[in-house]
Amino acid sequence: MENNTSLQQQLLEAGVHFGHLKKKWNPKMLPYIFAEKKGIHIIDLNKTVEGLQETAAAMKQIARSGKKIMFVATKKQAKEIVTECAQKVNMPYVTDRWLGGMLTNFNTVRKSVKKMQSIEKMLNDGSFDSITKKERLQLSRDKDKMEKVLGGIANMGRLPAALFIVDIGHEHIALAEAKRLGVTTFGLVDTNCDPNKVDYFIPGNDDATKSIAIITEYLTAAIAEGLAERQVEKSEEESDEEVVDKGPKFDEGEEGGSRERGGRGRGNAGGGGAPKRRVASTQKRTSSR
Question: What is the pLDDT of residue 263?
């Protein structure tokens, strides 16, 4: 309870409770609105804490399973914060512009990413030394443009398992593509949006920099915990495998040899060999004489 109270206090100080003007509200946000003050809706921070903790638990589980969560925030207030947080946990992100078809036409987007990476490689290893300065400058500009839009997903080899979206109204194209492909969606939802459009939502101010920062950092910490637990599990599995590999082993050759020697010994001890047959033949010759 104390932790929740402390978290509520932090959210209050960051201004997470400030919603939009009453005239811009979405009626489906009514259960998450605490009051109205000077024409502005005040969000219930109890609901915010509940949504934040539920979202964090789900994100932690996804990270623990080794899947990727894409961060999407192209609003000016959120760009730097979301980029920094996504890089901390090595997750893909889009903070400049959402290209139409980034998920639904992922194969084509991957081709553009590979083109960007090949240009970068050639510029670095001197492969373009033979071309003119103008052509090299043009290729550098093309690479910079692609990197600005696609740099955050350069290491993403397949579709993400989930999307975390700041302002689902502003990122409606990304949300629609995720829904079409059945990708899990998380969102920071203000009073002017429909919370039912995402699978997990956090009622809160999606315009203030401090509000976006505290929510995103909390979720990033949960993802980091999931990744750490995954690393511990992998280390334990590897150590278990090493113990099995270093266990006692039997030398099949030596065991087989002892059996073979034992077999010969039993044959001699049983008296079933050639000496008996020689004795028998001697007795026959003696009797015939």
Answer: 45
CB 100 within 8 Å of CB 175: no
**What digits encode the pLDDT tens for the residues 23-66?**
989 999 999 999 999 899 999 999 999 999 999 999 999 999 99
35: left (phi over 0), alpha (psi -120 to 50) or beta: beta
250 phi/psi in degrees, rounded to 5: -100, 135
User: CA–CA separation, 108 vs 102, rounded Å?
Assistant: 8
- Residue 114 near residue 90, CB atoms below 8 Å: no
Interhelix angle 45-64/209-245, nearest 10 degrees: 30
Neighbours of 48 (CB within 10 A): 25
pTM of the model: 0.78
Distant-in-sequence, close-in-space partners of 156: CB < 8 Å, separation ≥ 6 = 68, 70, 92
CA-based nearest residue to 97, from 151, 59, 61, 30: 151
- Return the CATH architecture of domain 2-103+159-228: 3-Layer(aba) Sandwich (3.40)
- Classify residue 237 as exposed, middle or buried by CB count within 10 Å of its CB (0-12, 13-18, 19+): exposed
Q: What are phi and psi of 279, to 5 degrees?
A: -65, -40
Distances (CA, A) of 19 to 39, 78, 168, 217, 238: 10, 17, 14, 20, 50
Q: Cα 195–201–207 angle (5° rounding)? A: 85
Domain extent listing, the chain: 2-103+159-228, 107-157
Indicate the DSSP class of residue 96: S
Per-residue pLDDT tens over the stretch 54-69 = 999 999 999 999 999 9
